[in-house]
Amino acid sequence: MDPFYGPGRNQLFVPGPVNIPEPVLQAMNRNNEDYRAPPVPALTKKLLADVPKIFKSTTGTPFLFPTTGTGAWESALTNTLSPRDRIISFEMGQFSLLWIDQMKRLNFDVDVVHCEWGTGVDLEILRTKLEADKEHKVKAICCVHNETATGVTNNLAAIRTVIDDCMHPALFLVDGVSSVCAIDFRMDEWGVDVALTGSQKALSLPTGLGIVCASPKALEATKTAKSLRVFFDWNDYLKFYKLGTYWPYTPSIQLLYGLRTALDLIFLEGLDNVIARHTRLGRATRLAVEAWGLKNCTQREEWYSDTVTAVVIPPYIDSTEIVKRAWKRYNLSLGLGLNKVAGKVFRIGHLGNLNELQLLGCLSGVEMVLKDIGYPVKLGSGVAAAAAYLQMTTPLIASRV
Ligand SMILES: Cc1ncc(COP(=O)(O)O)c(C=O)c1O
Predict the structure, then answer these.
(1) pLDDT value for 398
(2) Residue 102 beta carbon below 6 angstroms from any ligand 1 atom
(3) Over 90: is that where the pLDDT of 67 sits?
(4) Which residues, at least 6 apart from 112, have a Cβ–Cβ distance to it below 8 Å?
(5) Which residue, by CA, sits nearest to atom 16 of ligand 1?
(6) How far is the CA of 17 from the centre of ligand 1 (A)?
(7) Across residues 259-282, what is the average pLDDT?
(8) What is the CATH number of domain 11-18+271-393?
């Protein structure tokens, strides 16, 4: 028995891991199987055919690693690059910072562009760097699409345009951990060479799958990439793909069945409808924040994230207390401020298998906590602003029309 059990459902509004929908829980509630007997390869074959769709790719090759987003990062880097290769990357929050740290520890030569937390990729800096790189020493541009620590979404299409304008051959590696299946992501159209995500975010699965999709150019790069790699080597997977057995080591059977159902749910709703739902939930959250008289950590509208909102609170309040109290009093889980923004922001995750009424429950909880903690909020103000917008915009449920 959980000694911290609270009545009712926990309102899980951290920006991942997120709620797992009931059909996925049921699909995963099963015994282990012999993964060499026909059902698992048949299941895998179909999964590999469907996974590129979440990245909007028809040319990408998918890999399902038993890992997390961090492992997917390592897989992207080590399969495409060699030690001391130069990478341009942007540090704008805790997750871009951690990826850069990994790049350094893997012995790449990282040209780090430090951005103020709450801002996104500065396209002019990227342009200047690429224009100056006449010898094409830069081998990769690495970008976190959605910086989960600050709620900043970068414009991948604009980054691709800069790379193309400079006629630069660098690979474009993108962390889509808190964007894929929630925010528009077009791998082929935007010339993303490696796209990656983790199962515990918008796919609404347990943690444990690092999902990577490699473009033909990225696959070509593996042939000369000299980075040491063993567990994450794409070639081991490709060998087993050819054999039709798919797995170089034991897969998590339960996660594969869960992924099947998670994808089925997304396709049933329609990926673009899923993205539109996140657009609505993101906007509704921002309207509530505005109604509370609080600021979004994200400095410009062009970077607003539809999966996470980092809310800046006045300096006389410690945001950690908001998160603690929400959990202790209302059974509401909010995201802490991380690193540079610790104590200054709290985060509302609004991603995954989530609907409008759930979000309103969370917003009403946040209002009560703000009042508890001494912030002068009018109860109902944020909920009213969000509800007014959602009432106007929420469509009929696609499967019930
Ligand atoms: C944008 C982003 N990238 C990478 C990660 C790391 O993923 P994981 O914790 O699954 O290793 C996270 C985790 O929250 C994230 O938000």
Answers:
(1) 87
(2) no
(3) yes
(4) 89, 90, 91, 100
(5) 148
(6) 10
(7) 98
(8) 3.90.1150.10
